[in-house]
Design brief:
- Strands 10, 11, 12, 13, 14, 15 and 16 form a seven-stranded mixed β-sheet that branches.
- The termini are far apart.
- Strand 2 and strand 3 form a beta hairpin.
- This protein is of the alpha+beta class and 373 residues long.
- It has three domains: 146 residues, Hypothetical upf0131 protein ytfp, CATH 3.10.490; 49 residues, no CATH class; 150 residues, Nucleoside Triphosphate Pyrophosphohydrolase (Alpha-Beta Complex).
Length: 373
């Protein structure tokens, strides 16, 4: 049996139970402190940093009597955050000092911010982190720690997408607790994107449950699409880039004209992502965003939810753009007139559905936007 001092995110009991696979089983958690250490937020990250600070005190809990399997599951999870086990002396709330283990970061030169607060973290990151832990721990015993580290950015994106989906309005005509029955859930592929399968039944319109069906889906994070529009010059900005799925599908023309687009980072608002992507890909600071729609891109095949915008800007102020080299992007930018855009839509020259959708929205609202400009 092992005792582990927990100072960070795993103090959130639902997350700890997910990592340990101990839902419903009792855990012995005792309030405790670790002297000469302090816990801080890390700039731009969702995890805390513990550092040696003479005279400081790190508060936490002591998880007592953990099994070898418990410890192996903790190590598997903590490895994704670059943490290793060390032995320390901790002070329980009641009783004598005892020796325990604690997960410490291998990298200590991270940019530390204010004192870390469990309450603040739970409010901002708790649901996303718990959902991410579900997928991480599903790979326990199947993947090694290095493989989880490589997959973790995609896992967090999918977790944030799941939490965002949970916040959308429910269906008043269906009760998921009785109208959908899941018999098995398999994660067949997990990397930056993921593919999952379920064996399930759903309530048919005749009131009976369907036969057990095997269905798969590509699991994607939320995305933004922005069609930049200069209402004074009546022009739009398009980007062209090589699209691997189009090529893999056998299309002989895998370079595709599109609006600006990109993934929404966990904790980032769609509007923030829209402005960031427009700067990265088009070199343009937008003056205003007009919301087009929030839609699923392909309900029969993908979980992707797309936030679409028309972004108003002054194209004379545009800088280089072209995407981020570290993300493998190589983007060409072209400014076309509104008339040429709509002619291209009518002639089927544009093959990207978000581009066509945003163009048709612009056709309805163009006069209003030009008058306001």
């Amino acid at each position: 049996m092992s005792d582990v001092f927990i100072y960070g995110t795993l103090r959130h009991v639902p997350l700890l139970e997910t990592v340990l696979g101990r839902g419903g089983e009792p855990l012995e958690l005792i309030p405790a402190t670790l002297c000469d250490f302090s816990v801080h937020e890390v700039l731009g990250q969702s995890f805390p940093l513990i550092q040696g600070v003479p005279g400081a005190t790190a508060t936490g809990v002591l998880a007592r009597g953990l099994t070898k399997t418990d410890l192996a599951r903790l190590q598997f999870y903590e490895f994704a955050f670059g943490n290793d086990l060390r032995h320390v002396t901790v002070q329980p709330e009641h009783g004598q000092e005892i020796r325990a283990m604690v997960f410490m970061p291998a990298q200590v030169d991270l940019p530390a911010d204010r004192q870390w607060s469990l309450e603040r973290w739970v409010e901002k990151w708790g649901p996303v982190s718990q959902r991410a832990a579900v997928e991480v721990m599903d790979h326990f015993g199947k993947l090694n720690g290095d493989e989880i580290v490589r997959r973790f950015p995609g896992i967090r994106i999918r977790a944030a997408a799941w939490v965002a989906a949970q916040s959308r309005a429910g269906d008043p005509d269906h009760d998921l607790s009785r109208d959908v029955v899941v018999h098995a859930h398999h994660r067949r592929y997990s990397n930056f994107f993921a593919a999952e399968e379920m064996d399930l039944q759903y309530r048919r319109y005749d009131g009976h449950l369907s036969p057990v069906l095997n269905r798969g889906a590509q699991m994607l994070g939320p995305a933004v699409v922005v069609l930049p529009y200069d209402p004074v010059r009546d022009t739009v900005l398009l980007v062209e880039q090589f699209r691997t799925p189009v090529f893999m599908g056998g299309d002989p023309a895998p370079w595709v004209w599109e609006p600006v687009s990109g993934m929404i980072d966990p904790g980032e608002a769609p509007e923030m992502a829209a402005r960031r992507e427009t700067v990265e890909e088009a070199g343009l600071d937008l003056m205003r965003l007009e919301q087009v729609a929030g839609v699923y891109s392909s309900t029969g095949a993908s979980s992707e939810f797309v936030h679409m915008f028309v972004g108003l800007g002054d194209f004379e102020t545009r800088l280089q753009g072209g995407g981020l080299a570290e993300e493998g992007e190589d983007i060409r930018v072209e400014i076309v007139s509104y008339a040429d855009l709509m002619q291209g839509v009518d002639q089927g020259r544009y093959r990207d559905m978000p581009l066509v959708t945003c163009a048709l929205w612009l056709a309805r609202h163009r006069d209003r936007l030009r008058e306001a400009a």
